[in-house]
Write a structure and sequence with these properties.
By secondary structure, the protein is an alpha+beta fold. 45% of the residues lie in helices and 27% in strands.
């Protein structure tokens, strides 16, 4: 009888934790707004609360718009004979709608170039803040090159929204 009561108690506590975790998750990570583009595609747009803030990005002065590169990029690499995985979720920040369109149309090329860039890393460099920042800067430069080749003007920033090394 005591085992049954303990089991029910654990079940109720676990259920409460799942419900509370879901509430906290939706509070901290709200769903993005969706926008219907002129080509009929629906895109996720996350407006910036501090579009003209201290970041200094974007000479055009327009509002910042974010485009999530989905699904997250997953790369495997070796670390002292052990295979490790890197999973990165990222969003591209632009202020010009033309640049946003160029990024969206070239997602396969962007993903390809970023996967090749990220697969050449070591575990030690990925675990340091400097290594992550260097990777972010190199990935941003890669995306900027693609946008410029396609006739765009600028990509303001690249943000890592999830960074998991296993």
């Amino acid at each position: 009888m005591g085992t049954l009561v303990n089991g029910i108690g654990i079940f109720v506590l676990t259920l409460g934790a799942v419900i509370a975790g879901g509430f906290v998750n939706t509070t901290l990570h709200p769903m993005p707004d969706f926008k219907l583009g002129p080509d009929g595609k629906i895109t996720a747009v996350k407006p910036s609360a501090a579009a003209g803030g201290a970041g200094g990005h974007g000479e055009e002065g327009g509002k910042a718009a974010y485009f999530a590169i989905d699904p997250p990029l997953v790369v495997n690499f070796e670390d002292s004979s052990a295979v490790r995985f890197l999973q990165i979720s990222m969003e591209v920040m632009v202020r010009d709608p033309k640049d946003m369109e160029i990024v969206q149309k070239n997602v396969p090329l962007v993903r390809n170039n970023l996967l090749l860039l990220m697969s050449n890393r070591t575990y030690q460099t990925l675990m340091s803040r400097e290594g992550k920042e260097k990777l972010r800067q190199e990935a941003l430069a890669e995306i900027r090159n693609i946008v410029k080749k396609e006739g765009g003007s600028n990509v303001d920033d690249l943000l890592f929204t999830s960074f998991v090394v296993q």
